[in-house]
Amino acid sequence: MKRTPLKRKTPLRSGHGGLRRTTLRAKPRPAEDKVDPRERRHVLLRDGECIARKCIRLGLVPDNHVCRDALGNPLPAMPDPMTLSLEHVKEAAQVGGNRAPSTRRWMVAACYHANNGDYWVSKYRSYIRLYLEWLDSKGAL
Ligand SMILES: [Zn+2]
User: Fold this and answer.
1) Alpha carbon of 61 to ligand 1 centroid (Å)
2) Could you tell me if 86 and 43 are in contact, meaning their C-beta atoms sit under 8 angstroms apart?
3) How remote is the CA of residue 80 from the centroid of ligand 1, in Å?
4) Which of 106, 110, 112 is nearest to 135 (CA)?
5) Which of 55, 95, 109, 130 could anchor a disulfide with 60, C-beta 3.0 to 4.6 Å?
């Protein structure tokens, strides 16, 4: 049987290097919304520990959180703060919309697990707001 070569009837789209645009990709963050490395460093060193551990240590919430890394391994009691991640906290509880500004007034340190594992930061956001308000009132942001 004679084979006929497969032939494309419509030309490949050009103009995007042959790649199709996808709507699945999230919009890139505007430059002013990216976290400045100095701001990140300041917040991680200021807090010095996961916000969940801090609130538990201060007796604000029940002891219901174990700090873990992205692989699920428990963190040491005093992890290097620079290995923690940043959590953005908006001024008031709201669903959707833009995230809080990437400034020290609206960010705290949190372990990976508090952010993406047990979602501690989502459950206790009001305490995080109180902590940031307290820092602000002390001029200690
Ligand atoms: Zn934690």
Assistant:
1) 13
2) yes
3) 12
4) 106
5) 55
